[in-house]
Specification:
This protein is α+β, with helices and mostly antiparallel strands. It has 11 helices and 11 strands. Bound molecules: (3R)-3-hydroxy-3-methyl-5-(phosphonooxy)pentanoic acid.
Length: about 325
């Protein structure tokens, strides 16, 4: 243990002994509290277990190019490749030559955590190759440092939910709490929480969306908005923990209105939100940074089959699809 702490503190000359390492992680969707979480409010996010990214890392010999990084047979852009060097510094170890090949089923740049997932798996693969054990907390903390390359000043929510792979309630700092989900109890037999995620296909930069929304959270009005987001997160959390979809839907819908007021809900997202609500979804809002990317909807648990078929048919006409996340 002592040796491991020293490795974090000193630029060590440690030579990796594992020559191949594998890492894999999920995507995420934010249920409530994005943007406000950057300024200290609480937020809730869920893992997208079936939408994942994985990498296989091989330690290269001295003669090989220092870092080769390909995902789905494409070289990753140079600034993304730099995340590997960020990982060496975050771990406090001397860089070694690596060849990384990755693949993913997670939509990229769609507000579903792809940059956080990339940071987590890069760090995990390098740590494994260097035979460093990382706790989930340490992994989330260090990966959030890597995320600065993409977000500027990320809250830590994305890397935390990806590291934990649990539905979590998060506040900037050390507070990560797993939500004790209860199945929906709503005029019928208990059932899982039927969420839909819809990718608008429009792409935007998280950093520019954070900059766009920032004024909304500043000053004395901003403080009131942050307090409201905190209250809405508490409402959603108690709904998820008591199986009450009305509480969750109420919190999500009001948070969605506040995100519109913050200026991060563009026309495409607005249309998708209206489509879901018009077909009876209990709640629909943008998820993630906005300005494009995805929306998240909560269906009526007892009419979900009809709602999915109507929403799916309407999306198909626009060349879009949904995917389901059933939480229990
Ligand atoms: O769109 P994404 O997946 O990059 O999520 C960004 C979430 C924000 O709350 C807007 C930023 C953050 O650091 O929490």
């Amino acid at each position: 243990m002592k040796q491991q702490i020293n490795r974090f503190q000193l630029q060590s000359d440690y030579i990796p002994r594992t020559i191949e390492a594998h890492a894999d992680a999920c995507g995420k969707a934010i249920i409530v509290g994005e943007h406000a979480v950057v300024y200290g409010s609480r937020a809730i996010a869920m893992p997208l277990q079936v939408h994942r990214m994985s990498v296989r890392l091989r330690v290269g010999d001295e003669a090989s190019k220092s870092v080769q990084f390909r995902i789905s047979n494409h070289d990753v852009p140079a600034h993304v490749c730099e995340v590997v060097n960020d990982a060496f510094s975050a771990l406090g170890i001397k860089p070694f030559n690596v060849k990384i090949e990755g693949s993913h089923s997670l939509p990229i740049g769609a507000g579903l955590g792809s940059s956080a997932t990339l940071c987590i798996i890069t760090l995990q693969a390098i740590a494994k190759a260097a035979q460093i054990d990382l706790s989930r907390d340490r992994l989330a903390f260090l990966a959030n440092k890597l995320e600065r390359r993409f977000h500027g000043n990320p809250s830590g929510l994305d890397t935390a939910v990806v590291a934990y792979e649990k539905v979590i309630s998060f506040k900037k700092g050390p507070e990560i709490r797993e939500i004790a989900m209860k199945k929906i109890h709503h005029d019928g037999p208990p059932c899982a929480w039927p969420f839909l995620i819809i990718d608008s296909g429009v792409r935007s930069s998280t950093l520019s969306m954070i900059q766009k929304a920032k004024p909304y959270f500043m000053g004395s009005d901003g403080e009131k908005v942050l307090q409201r987001f905190d209250d809405l997160t508490t409402k959603v959390e108690s709904g998820l923990e008591s199986g009450d979809p009305d509480l969750v839907a109420g919190g999500m819908n009001e948070a969605g209105q506040l995100l519109k007021a913050a200026g991060v809900v563009n026309d495409e997202l607005r249309q998708l939100i209206d489509l879901c609500r018009d077909h009876g979804a209990l709640a629909a809002k943008s998820t993630g940074a906005g300005g494009g990317g995805s929306i998240i909807a909560l269906l009526n648990p007892h009419q979900q089959a009809q709602q999915k078929s109507k929403i799916g048919a309407a999306l198909l006409r626009h060349g879009l699809q949904y995917f389901e996340v059933n939480l229990s």
